[in-house]
Structures
1.
Amino acid sequence: QVQLVESGGGLVQAGGSLRLSCAASGRTFSTYGKGWFRQAPRKEREFVAAISRGGGYTYYSDSVKGRFTISTDNAKNMVYLQMNSLKPEDTAVYYCAAATDGLIGSMYYYPRNYNYWGQGTQVTVSS
């Protein structure tokens, strides 16, 4: 069993930056693929970024590519999302997720492929 706890959300002006953190319990976290998703009011949960279990591969949605960076510190059971050049349309609740099965490529994009989820952290970007 893995528990995920996000932190680092808040209110920021457009163009600003935030760094989200996700702390995981469990000794096997390093063997999981990790992802960040977000959900805005009245919208479906959408993929933001993912990183392979070893950290060698990263994936980004087109809307955040070049602005967001996902990273992981498996020794500390942490995964991060550095968000730069934030836009009002980035406003959402951001969720950290972990996948126990080996994911490949586009499999990271789908919430159904993740087994564990955090409670979410609110990010609000003002214009």
2.
Amino acid sequence: QVQLVESGGGLVQSGGSLRLSCAVSGIIFSLNAMGWYRQAPGKQRELVAAISSGGNTNYADSVKGRFTISRDNAKNTVYLQMNSLKFEDTAVYYCNVQPALVRFWGQGTQVTVSS
């Protein structure tokens, strides 16, 4: 059974930082590209950061220079370090393989940035 469990969200002031974690089980983690996605109220879910099995990274323009995605294959965990948070980063954040598979969506973790 595949499980992706996100954690680390919370309420933070504008300019603050958070580190999200996603523990993955049920797949060969090291062979999969992974992504962090987010969905803000009234908006479609979007990919914000991705990391290949080899460690290459890509970011949405809106988070470039502020967010950093990383992975620890020994722990089957992918991380998202979020710095200089803005009000518009408020969303539910999810991890998934990249490209995403519908059956892998978890509960996500809420990130709320107060202005």
3.
Amino acid sequence: EVQLVESGGGLVQTGGSLNLSCVTSGFTFSTSALSWVRQAPGKDMQWLSTIYNFQASSYYADSIKGRFTISTDNAKNTLYLQMNNLEAEDTAVYYCVNGGLPYDRSRAVKRADYDYWGQGTQVTVSS
């Protein structure tokens, strides 16, 4: 059974940092593609970042490029999202998903786009 469990969210002030974790099981982590998406209040789900673990290539949405870093620890089957210089607009529920780049990175992510989702972790940035 595939499982993804996020943690690390919380309340932080503008300019602060958080490091989200996603512990996974049930699939071959080292050869997988994994992504982070988020949903802000009242907004569509947004793709943020993807890492192709088997080739160590990563991709970012323009809105987070230079501030967020996606990474993995194969020994722990864990995906991370280091978030720096957080802004109020980053307030959202963050999800890790088992899958790669969306066909169209600019359109809203749908639940059906990925087979497996974590439960989400809330990030709140106060100004």
4.
Amino acid sequence: QVQLVESGGGLVQPGGSLRLSCVASGIIFNINTMRWYRQAPGKQREWVASITSGGSTNYADSVKGRFTISRDNAKNTAYLQMNSLKYEDTAVYYCNTYIGANSWGQGTQVTVSS
């Protein structure tokens, strides 16, 4: 059974930084593409970033140049480093992978506020 557990969210001022972590279990982590999504209040969940098993990365235009996705296969962990945070980055952030079906974590809240 796939389990994804996110952590690292919190309250941060505009311009600040946070690093989210996603620990995976129940999968052969190093062969899976890992993704981060987010969902702001009243909005649909949106894709933020992806990293393949080979380390190739892709980003939504809204976060390009500010967010960095990475992975540590030895720790079965994916990360999302978020810099220069803006009010509009406020959302619940979810970790995702696909193994025959989508698997999601419980989410971690990121609030950007002064």
